[in-house]
Automatic annotation (TrEMBL):
The keyword Transmembrane helix applies. Keywords: Membrane, Transmembrane, Transmembrane helix. It comes from the Archaea. This is Uncharacterized protein. The chain crosses the membrane at residues 27-45, 52-73, 93-111, 165-186.
């Protein structure tokens, strides 16, 4: 198995896609690092500590869950989220949640611009200096959204709730992948 892994790594490195794959794994490595840091803190404070492989698997599951939720929100429109939340009985709360979700991309753009500005001005040592302006901007922006919603109301968009063949295929394939991941998770945990 090790020679095959080395051969795959050599092929990926020579083809130039090794850097892309490592770039994609940075997100998973962040979750693994957080899990290991929590594990080390638990050991330091004499709490119950899990072994390293269980911490890595739990971190990988957390990263997969986060990526799944992120992809769901990329595939659905805000109107669909609002329609779904109203159908399950949330009403005004569902509308508020949908409005909050619709503002996340704009706030993330502003935050990344603020962090880039602070990094260029101060380097990576003083990133906390961007925190207060970002909080103030978020509060002002939330106030503006609230005022606009109060004055103009929330528009109703008709939603086509019909199911297309492509949608059904995607749902079935996603469900099959979820069940496969669940099965593999159960069998891997049974052998650890």
């Amino acid at each position: 198995m090790l020679p095959a892994l080395v051969a795959i790594l050599i092929i990926l490195h020579t083809s130039g896609s090794f850097r892309k794959i490592l770039g994609g794994l940075q997100f998973v490595v962040i979750f693994i690092a957080i899990g290991l840091a929590i594990n080390l803190l638990a050991k330091f404070f004499n709490f119950w500590v899990v072994d390293i492989t269980s911490a890595a698997i739990a971190s990988l599951k957390g990263a997969l869950m986060f990526m799944t939720i992120a992809s769901i929100f990329q595939w659905t429109r805000i109107e669909e989220i609002r329609w779904f939340l109203e159908k399950i009985g949330l009403g005004e709360l569902g509308t508020s949640i949908a409005i909050a979700f619709s503002q996340i991309p704009y706030i993330m753009i502003v935050y990344s611009e603020a962090l880039s500005t602070v990094k260029l001005k101060y380097g990576s040592r003083y990133l906390y200096k961007a925190l207060l302006p970002m909080i103030l901007h978020s509060v002002n922006y939330a106030k503006e959204i609230t005022e606009a919603t109060y004055i103009y109301g929330i528009p109703k968009y008709p939603i086509d709730a019909s199911i297309k063949i492509v949608d059904a295929i995607i749902v079935v394939a996603s469900s099959m992948m979820l069940l496969l991941c669940l099965y593999l998770s159960i069998t891997i945990n049974a052998f650890l």
